[in-house]
């Protein structure tokens, strides 16, 4: 009865885990053999018969009968007088099979055996979960908010697997309550100890790609391909699309009538503004499209011999003065995304710069490069364009201190005074 009761208690674990019958039997045998080895020194001469469905467990020890006083190994040999207590007609040289009750292992051994079994089942379960989610890396996954921490949201899926959505992987406008359904892409899966750490992301550019695949049939079917994505999560994104079928307008198909198709994606991403752009292998044209809604007058590309910081080269873009602010975008967002999407550093220049004006780069001996870059991010690439702007406005639109801006304007002013 002790064996049956123990097996029945083991089956409680099986009911809560996704373990098939064959695997459970293998784990049980491994655990029991480890216990027998600790008790008897070897498990080679033991037969273990397990039927977890019925709760049956039998352990048989096989020993050879030897003459009294000639036993060298009590585990593998049994003296004749002892053997005849089991069956009176045993003879020397015959094999004796004797059932071993679990209780014979001792209470401590049984407790250790039970803990070992729990550990093995959890380890198996964790390995299965790890493999399952490793195959899902980069795919959309949904789970429910279980509890909220200051630096992460802990989610549980339908099978009770824990998934972590760190603060860094949340969109700025995300707000969750317990029980909310949350979608994202599986960003990474790692084994930490014996427990899988599953990280979900809503800020990954791949999340936008997967939403397009999920929401737009032509993308899912491969009729429209996504050639590039750039995102500032929760703010703005640019996605380049193409189609090998001339009858399909890739941008129109993705946006839908009055934005009907893309609306669900925008809502999922916290009203992130999404520009869908026609991809082309003509780099000049692609760069011009990437800077939309600005209308570009001309594009001049200077390619690097080797990529620098992930950029293929530098581009000088000429625009009419009224188009510059559109190309730059609020806080430089539009030009930054265009740069990410195309893989080029983009410098914006106004048409008709007066001859007496001077490019900011001419002051690189007196003004640090990163300071010049801050001005260029908001479309100010000449001395006069900086001098014309109000200091308060420059403080708001750049990451520069008022003192730095005043110092720059002083240097520029002195140039013209000279």
Automatic annotation (TrEMBL):
Domain K Homology intervals: 233-306, 311-392
This protein's UniProt keywords: Cytoplasm, Elongation factor, Protein biosynthesis, RNA-binding, Transcription, Transcription antitermination, Transcription regulation, Transcription termination
Any GO BP annotation: DNA-templated transcription termination
Location of this chain's protein in the cell: Cytoplasm
Domain of life: Bacteria
Coiled coil: none
GO terms, molecular function: DNA-binding transcription factor activity; RNA binding; translation elongation factor activity
Keyword DNA damage: no
Family listed: Belongs to the NusA family.
Subunit (UniProt): Monomer. Binds directly to the core enzyme of the DNA-dependent RNA polymerase and to nascent RNA.
Task of the protein: Participates in both transcription termination and antitermination.
PANTHER family found in the cross-reference section: TRANSCRIPTION TERMINATION FACTOR NUSA, TRANSCRIPTION TERMINATION_ANTITERMINATION PROTEIN NUSA
The protein's name: Transcription termination/antitermination protein NusA
């Amino acid at each position: 009865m002790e064996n049956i009761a123990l097996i029945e208690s083991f089956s409680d674990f099986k009911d809560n885990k996704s373990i098939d019958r064959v695997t459970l039997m293998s784990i049980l045998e491994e655990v029991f053999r480890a216990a027998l080895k600790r008790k008897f020194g070897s498990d080679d001469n033991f037969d273990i018969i397990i039927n977890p469905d019925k709760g049956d467990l039998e352990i048989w020890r096989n020993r050879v009968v030897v003459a009294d006083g000639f036993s060298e190994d009590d585990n593998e040999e049994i003296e004749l007088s002892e053997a005849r207590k089991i069956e009176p007609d045993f003879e020397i040289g015959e094999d004796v099979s004797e059932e071993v009750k679990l209780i014979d292992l001792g209470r401590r051994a049984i407790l250790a055996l039970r803990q070992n079994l729990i550990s093995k089942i959890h380890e198996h379960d964790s390995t299965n979960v790890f493999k399952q989610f490793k195959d899902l890396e980069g795919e959309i996954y949904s789970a429910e908010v279980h509890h909220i921490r200051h630096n992460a949201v802990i989610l549980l899926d339908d099978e009770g697997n824990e998934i972590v959505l760190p603060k860094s992987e949340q969109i700025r406008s995300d707000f969750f309550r317990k029980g909310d359904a949350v979608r994202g892409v599986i960003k990474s899966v790692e084994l930490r100890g014996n427990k899988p750490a599953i990280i979900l992301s809503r800020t990954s550019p791949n999340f936008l790609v997967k939403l397009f695949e999920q929401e737009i049939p032509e993308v899912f079917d491969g009729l429209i391909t996504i050639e590039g994505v750039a995102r500032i999560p929760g703010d703005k994104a640019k996605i380049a699309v193409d189609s090998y079928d001339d009858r399909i307008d890739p941008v129109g198909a993705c946006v839908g009538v009055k934005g009907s198709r893309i609306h669900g994606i925008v809502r999922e991403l916290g009203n992130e503004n999404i520009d869908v752009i026609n991809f082309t292998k003509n780099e000049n044209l692609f760069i011009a499209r990437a800077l939309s809604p600005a209308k570009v007058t001309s594009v001049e590309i200077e390619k690097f011999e080797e990529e620098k910081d992930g950029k293929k080269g530098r581009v000088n873009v000429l625009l009419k003065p009224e188009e510059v602010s559109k190309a730059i975008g609020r806080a430089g967002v539009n030009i930054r995304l265009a740069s990410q999407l195309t893989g080029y550093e983009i410098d914006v220049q106004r048409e008709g710069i007066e001859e007496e004006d001077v490019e900011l780069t001419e002051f690189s001996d007196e003004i640090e490069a990163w300071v010049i870059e801050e001005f260029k991010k908001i479309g100010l690439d000449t001395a006069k364009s900086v001098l014309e702007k109000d200091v308060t406005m420059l403080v708001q639109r750049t990451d520069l201190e008022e003192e730095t801006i005043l110092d720059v304007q002083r240097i520029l002013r002195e140039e013209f005074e000279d």
